[in-house]
Amino acid sequence: MSQITTETVTIAAKDGSGDFSAYLSKPESGNGPAIVVIQEIFGVNAGLRTMCDRWAAAGYVAICPDLFWRQEPGVDLTDQTEEEWQKAFALYNGFDVDKGIEDIAATIDFIRGHGRSTGKVGAVGYCLGGLLAYLTATRTDADANVSYYGVGIQDKLDEAAKITRPLMLHIAGKDEFVDAAAQAAIHDGLDGHAQSTLYDYPEADHAFSRINGQHYREDDATRANERTAAFFADHLKG
């Protein structure tokens, strides 16, 4: 990995309720487009920080905001113990999606104005973050958005008409949290949308790209990540 620099930054919430932190990873030299990395239910953990660092090594300014800060700042969990899963689901159940999108919008504004940013901003999210990446496409001015196995997108398809910039979805065919009916609804709602591109991974379960996760599938993860990298290169660097 090329030399990168990292820091924790503070972002003001749009509703004036306080500040929240974000992990920021910057490329070795020069400016670059920005990518907002949107957390799973485990908070801004080592896996998400590593993703930011990899994007920075590829020439992007990558930032991962703490979206659970309104409940508990600094959540950093793994998927390795039952106790952590229980806490993660409790945080997920208490999460305000609308406020989360407001905080992502604040993050986009922050990183777009950062001295190392070219002004182009994309977003990529996983699980809960996959839903939020879809809503980032419908509710913010992010330039390109990618959703990995987003949970609950089928319930927000009435917002699809608001998508005006490129969106990519990676769908796990055997997703334990997004059943076949939900997947069919997502396809029905987005397949004909000019800005949307959907990819299916028929044998993959939820979180198939989470390294060291229970359902990690290297071939599918590599394919999805390569598609995402090409997508961002086209829409953020081009």
TrEMBL record:
PANTHER family: ALPHA_BETA-HYDROLASES SUPERFAMILY PROTEIN, CARBOXYMETHYLENEBUTENOLIDASE-RELATED. Gene3D superfamilies: alpha/beta hydrolase (3.40.50.1820). This is Carboxymethylenebutenolidase. GO terms for molecular function: hydrolase activity. InterPro entries: AB_hydrolase_fold, Dienelactn_hydro, Dienelactone_hydrolase-like. Residues 20-235 form the Dienelactone hydrolase domain. SUPFAM superfamilies: alpha/beta-Hydrolases (SSF53474).
